[in-house]
Amino acid sequence: MIMGNKKQNISGAFRRWLLLLVIIAFLATTAFLWISQTKISQNNAVNLLRLNISDVREDIVDASDENLLKLAHQIANDLNQSENITSELLAELTEKYDVTEINHINTDGIIVASTYPDFLNYDMRSGEQSAEFMVLLSGETEHVQSYQPVSYDASISRKYGGVTLENGGFVQVGYGAERFQKDIDEFVVGVTRNRHVGEGGLIIIVDENWSIVSDRYGNEGKNLDVTGIWINPDEIAENQSFVAEVYGEPCYCMHQLTEGYRIVAVMPKSEAALSRNVSVGVTTVMQIIVFAALFIMIFILVKRLVVENIYKVNDSLSAITEGNLDTVVDVRSHIEFDELSNDINSTVDTLKKYISEAEARIDAELAFAKAIQYSALPSVFPPYPNRKEFDISATMHTAKEVGGDFYDFYFVDDDTLAFLVADVSGKGIPAAMFMMQSKTLLKSYAESGMSVEEVFTNANEKLCEGNDAGMFVTSWMGLLNTKTGLVTFANAGHNPPLVKHADGSFTYLKTRPGFVLAGMEGIHYRKNEYQLEKGDVIYLYTDGVTEAMNVDNELYGENRLLDILNKNAESDTQTICDSVKTDVDIFVDKAPQFDDITMLCLKYNGEETSSMKELTVAATVENIQVVTDFINEQLEASACPMKAQMQIDVAVDEIFGNIAHYAYGEKTGMATVGIEVEDNPQAAVITFTDSGVPYDPLTQPEPDITLSADEREIGGLGIFMVKKTMDEITYEYRDGRNILRVKKYF
């Protein structure tokens, strides 16, 4: 810790931080205690409210049940004394006992007499509410239901009780809201008037119209809102606590509906918080004492046991960090410092070893990076063995483990080959990373269908973004039309290529170059054209070739490059690249390689005249023989041996049969079969083309031929035989067509 310009010693800093941590710990534990005790007090209040509501509810239900059963027993006694129970008798008893409804049910559960004529002959078992009273025919002597809406009219609430009769059956007595309230209002007032929730809480009971039935403060008959409580049953569920200001004091509240009454329990928040305040207060005092004692003890112990020894260790470490690796740390007062001393000494002993190993590891990682960089470049030559219109070769030799040069080539469509060479400013890892970014951008723009000048223009804008390092790229890129030999190209500050002409000599193809890529925003590049004739060669390179330097600081130069190319003018593309590299190495001799050496050589052979013969027919089973005859006619003209011809016939039958059966589903489409006979070595190449659903037979699993015919799954054997009998088989899906080629040598 620094105070002004004066640094504080470790014990003072430790004392300050320890005090701060103790205060934070004290505040954190106090806050946690406050929150937890608040939650506990709230939960206790809610549980107390719920318990009091439950007690009052049970009292009301018991009183209600007792009153109704008392009336039911009195009516049952009158009926037991009557010889004939009629609906008229029940009507008289209804007026006598001031009840709403009386029903007489026989031993079969059928209402045989009722104050409601519509209920006569009603089977009590048929209703959910009425079926509850069937227990009176199964041994029970009395049964009572809660106050609830009747099943036939939800707007009417009624309470029913039933008592068995001496002569069998039972009587069911029900009374409505008025009599129900009359019977239990007095009881309700008595139950709640002297009941307390905690010390200062209370119970309030209201009827269905929110009028107060019982209240400690004498507000009977008034609406509940005079207390300050407003309950919306749709928002505040029963037995859910909520907070309201009751008679001017914030309280926890809870409500529940029972027997037509709503019980509201209230408890002051101040009372609920009392236990929390006491607990927090006592605990806080104890924490102050404990934390103060801990602060003093920890500070003294740490200062004596740790700080003083740390000073000793620091003295030794200061010497080590200043470069004196022979310093030995010798603090042995305790096991921990003894081990620390040993660890520091061991670390110092291995530090030199780590330095040398780090150099070796960096070399290995750079070699791995070099392998990754090389893997991003085309490395298989010839890259397109089926394309006879051109030959192409390329090489790259980096001055360091990784470099900034790169070459690339790829088809942007069936007849256009993009090829380029580029050189990133700088060397090493930064150049390699910028090289990968540049290569990816150029390829993505070229493959999107842009012209060569648009590729450079767009790549330049993208490379300029965020180019804080100020790196740039020189590049020469061409697009070769493999059919015509026309090369459209653009040059972004790169060395001019060399072109071999019809007379066999190389000359430089010099045009006005554009600005380097990533050098400046807003640059637009120009397109140039050059017509390659059959046999012409174009050679691209980076300045690592012409600027290679020998021990006398002489440059290899453009003239030497031109001479070596003219000496190898009739060589193939790979030999040309190898000859240039060999000549550069001889010139440089023992001088270190100064720059990356990258080159690309392309020879234009021209488009070959195809000898393929084609037949287009409907893809039907009936045309299999037509196609077979067409193929055999060409094979016989080429003196194909009978064994090879028979194998080809089997393959044609299988492949064309699959097209006929599956390519177009239930519809009929067209299929084209082509055959071309190659020389040196002699072989037949047969191509099947259809516009049916995409299907690659080469990706299908091979059948298990070790199984018997009964065990083997159906399908797959035919194409398996084709794979085994033909020497080469390829598939591609292009331009909405399936193209399958088979090749058989003979």
Question: How would you describe this protein?
Answer:
Strands 3, 4, 5, 6, 7 and 8 form a 6-stranded antiparallel beta sheet that branches. Strands 9, 10, 11, 12, 13 and 14 form a 6-stranded antiparallel beta sheet that branches. Helix 6 crosses helix 7 and helix 12 runs antiparallel to helix 13. It is built from 13 helices and 29 strands. The chain folds into 3 domains: 285 residues, PAS domain (Beta-Lactamase), CATH 3.30.450.20; 229 residues, PPM-type phosphatase domain (Phosphatase 2c, domain 1, 4-Layer Sandwich); 133 residues, Histidine kinase-like ATPase, C-terminal domain (Heat Shock Protein 90). With 746 residues, it is of the alpha+beta class. The model has no long low-confidence stretch (mean pLDDT 86). The longest helix is centred in the first third of the chain and has 71 residues. The chain starts with a strand and ends with a strand. Strand 16 and strand 17 form a beta hairpin.
Précis, in short:
With 746 residues, the chain is α+β, with helices and mostly antiparallel strands. It contains 13 helices and 29 strands. Helix 11 (624-637) packs antiparallel against helix 12 (642-663) and helix 12 (642-663) runs antiparallel to helix 13.
**Sheet of most strands:** 6 strands, antiparallel
Tell me the β content.
Answer: 15-25%
**What is the 3D shape?**
flat
The assigned structural class equals alpha+beta
CATH domain fold name of the largest domain: Beta-Lactamase
Count of distinct strands: 29
Number of domains: 3
Integer average pLDDT: 86
> CATH architecture of the largest domain, please?
2-Layer Sandwich
- In percent, how helical is the residue content? 40-55%
Task: Provide the CATH top-level class of the largest domain.
Answer: Alpha Beta
Radius of gyration: 51 Å
Low-confidence regions: none
